[in-house]
Design a protein that fits this description.
Length: about 575
């Protein structure tokens, strides 16, 4: 049986125990009260039927209230901070018992024992301390009742007459309270075991998911929910150099930093080996990015052991941020988009915070076209499953292509079109077999011809969306060479659309510096040499120098060392 199932079963048992204990106590008090002849002195009210009706009515009301309250208690960890509801609940039992002992005939022997019931109720619900307080209060009520209504004798005679009752109340307060305290401690340990990551002490991913679902149900446009996914840069490199024990110490230190920075603003979980995830209710995009930046900067400036051998002599993190409902329609989409933002941060310079965005956000589409676009985006996900390289590649090509377009001074409309085309330029690979995409050896002639069809297939796929039809020639011609040796149509020079020429350059560069099934990545320096040599042949000679400026700027400002994650 799973820990979660054990916990649910235990909660059910606690609910049954509390309900039966409290109802039994209340029924006894109510029956004593209803049978009281002083309260119902008129002949009309002394009939057994009338008293029975009153008892049943009050008992039914009490049953509903007690059951509902105990369901809430059983769903929590028994002893919590007192609320006005808790105080009213225990006070209700105390008032009924007090009224009973004051109104029942005074010659009734040991009627004060009825006060034992609110003591048991309180102790079973709130623990030893609350039970002892209730027992003390009931002791005061007994003294008050005997002083007001009892015989005019000394205090010592009164005390001796009630000593047994008072002693039993304190014993039961202690006994019932100890049981509640033990149960609370047990449930707390069980909950921590089921919800905590053993290494970092943070919540585990399972508990985080449950909590995030609660947050997302309460979230809205005015009360957004932010999700931050954080990944330690080059953590494998650190583990390889210092060992996994040192790596574990880093994970613990990072967890402590996250806890200190986020505090009660959100919930933190270990997401994977070197990944952490943060959920922050009532947090918009700007606030989430600011929180992520503070975390990134704190970790970067933290003096971890051996950081002098890390890139830039620092241990850094990359963060992806997404916000519900701004960026996602449900929990699954929120995770996906935060992960995409993280991947973009890792793919570019690392040591960055990236807020999710979609190149399609500003498209004005009809309902049918939105459905078609969603289908196309689903196809992109399918390609990602077939070839993980494609997703990261499309993101990086989109980023670099738009950067080059801005450097050229292109219009906003042209930059948007370029973004759509860059993201979807490999959509035609959906038609290509997985084995071909991931083949380690060089492709044979038949496989090469199949792969060369993907620009045309991609162009045909996006044709169904009216707003995307202008990018059809860009997708179709993104493998044309400047000297006319490319495919599928052998276009040359300025006959190739400008936006397609841009994608041709950044597409090739990213393929050069990325790990592919059939080759190791080139260094930035080697890729620059290849682009320079291909200017005027594969690539537009006027665009290559501009793109190389972008790459050199990135190399100077970021980290481009050939280290694994």
């Amino acid at each position: 049986m799973k820990i979660r199932d054990i916990e649910l079963h235990r909660r059910k048992e606690i609910h049954e125990y509390l309900t039966m204990t409290h109802m039994f106590s209340f029924f006894i008090m109510m029956w004593a009260l209803v049978l009281n002849t002083r309260l119902f002195s008129m002949e009309t009210y002394t009939t057994t039927l009338f008293r029975f009706v009153i008892f049943c009515s009050l008992a039914l009301l009490a049953f509903i209230l007690i059951t509902r309250y105990n369901e809430k208690v059983a769903a929590q960890n028994l002893i919590t901070k007192f609320t006005w509801v808790d105080i009213l609940y225990v006070s209700f039992h105390l008032v009924v018992a007090t009224v009973t002992i004051f109104l029942v005939d005074q010659d009734t022997a040991y009627i004060e024992i009825i006060l034992l019931l609110p003591v048991i109720t309180t102790a079973s619900l709130m623990g030893v301390k609350a039970g002892m307080i209730m027992a003390s209060l009931c002791t005061a009520i007994i003294y008050t009742k005997n002083m007001l209504l009892g015989p005019l004798v000394g205090v010592f005679e009164i005390t001796e007459g009630n000593l047994i009752t008072i002693s039993v109340m304190f014993i039961m307060a202690w006994f019932s309270g100890v049981q509640t305290n033990l149960e609370t401690r047990h449930r707390g340990q069980l909950t921590r075991l089921a919800s905590t990551d053993f290494l970092t002490g943070l919540y585990n991913y399972g508990y985080f998911q449950d909590k995030l679902n609660e947050y997302i149900q309460a979230a809205s446009e005015t009360n957004p929910l932010a999700l931050i996914i954080l990944d330690i840069d080059y953590f494998k490199h650190y583990n390889d150099m210092y060992g996994h024990q040192a790596g574990d110490e880093v994970l613990v230190a990072v967890a402590d930093i996250l806890t200190a920075k986020i505090g009660r603003r959100g919930i933190i979980s270990r997401y994977g080996g070197d990944e952490f995830i943060i959920g922050m209710p009532n947090t918009n995009s700007e606030q989430a990015v600011q929180a992520a930046e503070e975390i990134r900067e704190t970790i970067r400036n933290h003096n971890f052991p051996g950081v002098e051998y890390q890139p830039e002599g620092r241990l850094t993190v990359s963060c992806g941020v997404a916000v519900y409902p701004t960026h996602a329609r449900n929990t699954k989409e929120l995770f996906k988009h935060a992960d995409q933002a993280l991947f973009r941060a890792k793919s570019l310079n690392k040591n960055k915070v990236e807020l999710y965005y979609s190149v399609f956000d500003n498209l004005d589409l009809s309902r049918d076209e939105k459905e078609l676009l969603n289908s196309i985006r689903t196809l992109v996900s399918v390609i990602n499953a077939k070839d993980r390289y494609t997703y990261g590649h499309s993101e990086r090509v989109t980023s670099h292509a738009t950067a080059l377009a801005k450097k050229l001074g292109l219009s906003e409309e042209e930059i948007n079109l370029l973004g759509y085309a860059a993201f979807l330029h490999d959509i035609g690979k959906i038609e290509i077999d997985r084995d071909v995409l991931n083949k380690v050896d060089l492709l044979n002639e038949k496989e090469q011809e199949e792969l060369k069809q993907h620009p045309q297939w991609g162009s045909d796929i996006v044709a169904a969306v009216t707003q995307l039809q202008p990018i059809m020639p860009i997708i179709r011609h993104h493998h044309e060479n400047y000297d006319g040796s490319g495919y599928p149509d052998g276009l040359k020079g300025s006959d190739i659309p400008l936006l397609a020429r841009i994608i041709r350059i950044v597409d090739s560069y990213d393929a050069m510096v990325s790990l592919r099934p059939y080759k190791q990545p080139l260094s930035t320096y080697e890729a620059i040499k290849e682009l320079t040599a291909g200017a005027g042949k594969q690539f537009d000679p006027e665009l290559v120098p501009l793109f190389l400026e972008i790459i050199r700027d990135e190399t100077e400002s970021g980290d481009k060392k050939d280290l694994s994650k």
